[in-house]
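Appendix C: a fully annotated inverse folding record. The material below is reproduced so that readers can follow the format used throughout the book. The structure is listed first as tokens, followed by the designed sequence.
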């Protein structure tokens, strides 16, 4: 099954490295024009340069900024349309993880994680959907959740709560945006090898033992699922959450 994104325009937040970067890279290789966002300006610029250097089209531009800031989100959508003429795909990938014991978890940590993970997702979806509605040609929204939204994990109460809420948002938006030919889904990564997770020297070994398929995911595994969900091949799939975890949530060992 070939997946092409020729003449498609996409925004991906939180894409300076890891899963978001690989999604941008894969979209660009498949022909899309991509607006790559990250809060870290250096990461964003370097990521876009790497992708352009590795692809024929070179249609990847960095727009650094805080994707939890509503005014920036709206400007991000406007920027994509100004540069490329339209918007077909919006992927809300940006998010933060904070660990903390429930009994002592700080209010500032709670509200910060909700602002970034929930607010950033909600308002990117809102701005993108309004643009797609105006265009009248439909589009795709994709959110990044986590297996912690399906399985309780110690010290991740607030994070898991935010990710479960993102999946409920995708379901609810089916009511709101289907009439405009916009589909909305969620990709749900489990343990994944990224530059951040690999800072733990035992990460790959530990999660290889805990994952039924014998290894944690790599970023390509998650990007492959993401690209399918925002492709024309998935136009009749909406309100769904696709778990990519090598079977971990079926048995959930810690």
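Designed amino acids, in order:
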């Amino acid at each position: 099954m070939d997946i092409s994104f020729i003449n498609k325009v996409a925004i991906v937040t939180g894409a300076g490295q890891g899963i978001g970067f690989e999604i941008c890279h894969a979209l660009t290789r498949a022909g899309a024009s991509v607006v790559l966002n990250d809060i870290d300006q250096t990461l964003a610029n370097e990521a876009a340069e790497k992708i352009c250097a590795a692809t024929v089209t070179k249609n990847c531009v960095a727009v650094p900024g805080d994707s939890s800031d509503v005014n920036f989100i709206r400007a991000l959508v406007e920027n994509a349309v100004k540069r490329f003429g339209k918007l077909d795909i919006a992927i809300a990938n940006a998010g933060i993880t904070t660990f903390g014991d429930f009994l002592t978890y700080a209010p500032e940590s709670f509200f910060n994680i909700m602002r970034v993970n929930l607010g950033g997702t909600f308002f990117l979806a809102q701005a993108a959907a309004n643009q797609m509605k105006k265009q009248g040609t439909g589009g795709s929204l994709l959110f990044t959740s986590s297996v912690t939204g399906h399985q309780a994990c110690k010290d991740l109460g607030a994070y898991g709560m935010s990710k479960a809420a993102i999946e409920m948002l995708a379901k609810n938006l089916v009511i709101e945006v289907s009439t405009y030919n916009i589909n909305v889904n969620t990709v749900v990564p489990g343990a994944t090898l990224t530059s951040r997770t690999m800072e733990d020297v035992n990460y790959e070994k530990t999660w290889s033992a805990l994952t039924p398929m014998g290894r944690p995911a790599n970023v390509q595994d998650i990007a492959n699922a993401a690209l399918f969900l925002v492709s024309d091949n998935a136009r009749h799939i909406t309100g769904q959450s696709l778990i990519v975890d090598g079977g971990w949530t079926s048995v959930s060992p810690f």
